[in-house]
Design a protein that fits this description.
10 strands, alpha+beta, about 15% helix, 1 helix, about 270 residues, 2 domains
Length: about 270
């Protein structure tokens, strides 16, 4: 019977003697590596979470962030009321105050960001009173103006902390349409109705990033509401029923201050 060489037998004895120990060491190494990998992954997620950490926001390690934000809006409307083809515009261009707020989500990109937001605003009264000779006085007004919009904006980096943007939005808006007239102090015609219709806007502007969590936005928008018809009564008693068309549009200059991650300090 052929005998195994002494050197071979010694090597085999060492292998079989040490194998359980190697297995234990290898298993410990694999377990340790797995634990380290999970710990590093968790740490990376925590670090990313510290950059975009509201409950509505999130980041991944490739720096693709989404950030929840709130904003306040103030500005000036240069409004036009009751414009109709072939007829003189009742209020061709009148300045009035507008203000409101916005909430949305910003998705950061290498060259800027996409912003999706909901916006609500109110507007001052726009009106005109005409008093030609003969004792006739007529007032046309749009009061308690409002709008709610869903907007999409695309931001582009320019230089340093400055960005430009453009976009548009759709939604609804309305106001209380008022038409009143009198002759010699006696009511001659009247029409009052709360109207609402489809609204859209488009515009752009300049953004200055004050910090990673605050931006100042100076923008221009063109805003318009569709046509509505308002029932009216005219003439001295007995009055004659009728109606008139009303609409509203405006060029707007707006100042917006946005705060990203507004709930961060409360967590």
């Amino acid at each position: 019977m052929h005998k195994m060489p002494t050197a071979t037998m010694s090597f085999a004895r060492v292998v079989f003697t040490k194998m359980p120990q190697w297995i234990r060491i290898s298993g410990l190494t694999l377990c340790t590596s797995a634990i380290c990998f999970l710990a590093l992954s968790s740490a990376a997620k925590v670090m990313a979470g510290q950059d975009c950490d509201s409950f509505l926001s999130g980041c991944d390690t490739s720096n693709n962030c989404r950030q929840f934000y709130l904003g306040g809006i103030v500005g000036a409307d240069f409004g036009t009321l009751n414009k109709e083809a072939g007829q003189p515009t009742v209020v061709p261009n009148q300045s009035l105050f507008t203000g409101g707020g916005t909430l949305g989500m910003r998705y950061l990109r290498d060259d800027g960001a996409w912003r999706f937001e909901f916006e609500g605003r109110g507007r001052d009264q726009i009106s005109v009173t005409e008093a030609p000779p003969g004792g006739f006085v007529a007032t046309t007004a749009a009061r308690d103006g409002w709008s709610t919009m869903v907007n999409v904006w695309r931001d582009y980096k320019v230089v340093g902390d400055f960005n430009v943007y453009a976009g548009a939005g759709i939604g609804a808006g309305g106001y209380r349409s008022v038409l009143q007239g009198s002759i010699g102090g006696l009511p001659f015609f009247a029409g009052t109705k709360n109207v609402s219709s489809f609204a859209w806007q488009a515009g752009g502007g300049l953004i200055y990033d004050v910090s990673n969590r605050m931006a100042v936005d100076l923008g221009y928008r063109f805003f318009t509401l569709g046509n509505n018809r308002v029932d009216s009564l005219s003439g001295l008693p007995p009055t004659v029923p009728g109606s008139y068309r009303t609409n509203y549009s405006a060029s707007e200059l707006l100042l917006t201050i946005r705060i990203y991650e507004p709930f961060r300090r409360w967590r």
